[in-house]
Amino acid sequence: RHARAVELTLAGKTDLASKEFDSIAAKDLSAEELNNICWSKALANVALDRALEECDRSLAKDNGFAARDSKAVVLLRQSKFDEAIVQFDLALEDGEVPAALYGRSLAYARKGDRVKSDADAARALKLAPGIDRTYDYYGLTR
């Protein structure tokens, strides 16, 4: 249902999509389920305010890496770069994860801090060659 609602949004049928999203939001979803629907909205760049709420609900249940990273990407999509950096920092507290490093490099780049952006991107690419192509696929480029 969620994938259908995302596709409806992309097709401009926001009223139908909102009904689907509302129905899904009314359920008692697990932290993982909430994170997954937050992440899919972030990737599709749709319903970002809803995505942020879902990430926050996920984090209230389980303050883990995945939801922090997803929330950071939502904030990046919303051009809230300082907030995104904070969330990427929190996601990186348990260790260097290439996705969070590369995501943070995008936030720094969009803020105009090329030095920090280049450092994070270089570290992410060393840990996971090709991570830049993954983010290019998401439509998130430096």
Would you give an account of this structure?
The protein is 76% helix and 0% strand. It has 142 residues and is mostly helical. The chain contains 9 helices and no strands.
Relative strand content? under 5%
Principal-axis shape equals globular
Distance between the termini: 33 Å
List unreliable stretches of 5+ residues. none
Kindly summarize this structure in a few lines.
The chain has nine helices and no strands. The chain is mainly α and 142 residues long.
Topology:
Blueprint: H1 2-10, H2 14-25, H3 31-44, H4 48-61, H5 65-77, H6 81-91, H7 98-111, H8 114-127, H9 131-137
Sum up the structure in keywords.
142 residues, mainly alpha, 9 helices
